[in-house]
Amino acid sequence: MEEKRCILCNKPYNYKYEMFGRGCLDNLYELLGFAKQPRIIWNKELNLCTRIAWKNHKFFLNRKKKYALAQKYIALNYLNMMNYEALNDTKKKISNDIKNIKTFSNNIVETISFSLNEIYRLFNYTQKFNNILEEIKNVNWEEVDKKTAENLIKSVSFIFDITKKTSPISYVVFYSMQYIFWQVVVIGGILNNKKFSSKLLFNSLTIIGNKPKDLIIKDDEVISLITESEIFKERINQLIKKYGQDADEFIVDDKNPKEDVLIRFYEGDLLYALHDATMLLKAKKDKNKKWNFEIEINDKYDFTEFKNIKQYADVDKNKLSDIFSTTLNNFAVVSSEFGVIKTFDLKIIFNTKEGEF
Ligand SMILES: [Zn+2]
Hints:
alpha+beta; 3 domains; six-stranded mixed β-sheet; 8 strands; 48% helix; elongated
């Protein structure tokens, strides 16, 4: 006899049913809210399909249509339990296909095909994810010890599986889980010590089909982060030496050599936020012979580039910094591939003067 596999859980079974093993069949009765059947029912599977048909107000369907309807209806139930907005389109298609199963039509018309086993597995992934998410939400990231934090973050790595991108339904489910994960990371305070990178990460997250806005940043916190960094101070001094010796003003823009324009930060928050930025400036001496600067820093927020920058590892001794620079960073690279973390342009504009930084 040919081995039969349950179309829901994919485990082998040998029983008279066409689709489900006995365990899954019992679970489906419960899942769909049907009361347990009396023993006298000979074929519980056919009975389940009939009851699903009746629930959908479809009577006198032939057996083939009943079984097809049941699969779609069960899939829809699992998709509903996953509760991701991005699945609405898929659900709508399956609902329509259910509507189109009619007693007096010859064919079953399908606008979307799926495997019940795939949907079942996706559902199990989301259950596992939800459980870990609850734990993550309850963690106090300021106090948790490094090992616990790391294990917790690593336990979610299964949602960053690039091979899940290929099937459309699984893409949507994994996209949604990653999107939620990053929302929790940003809002939940894992990156509390990296406000600027959090802000940019938050901006880059969009629901499926949407593009992030470009950002123009003028806020003081970010500006002092930059002006207080050694890289910035050194660069300004170099530029004054190079262009300001016998002048009252100078401009550094795209026409200048690259090394005067490109700027890369090596410190914590700035390292994660800005990758290969360019800094343009206008410098002018005021009446006290002090240099005044109008500065514009431009960058494209792009996590896929980050792989190459990783070698300049974070030297910040913060207890969570290495998790961010390795595990979270690898997650972010996968999320860029999924399009959960998207690229956008950002511009930081400010004025400063000699002696103020
Ligand atoms: Zn099964």
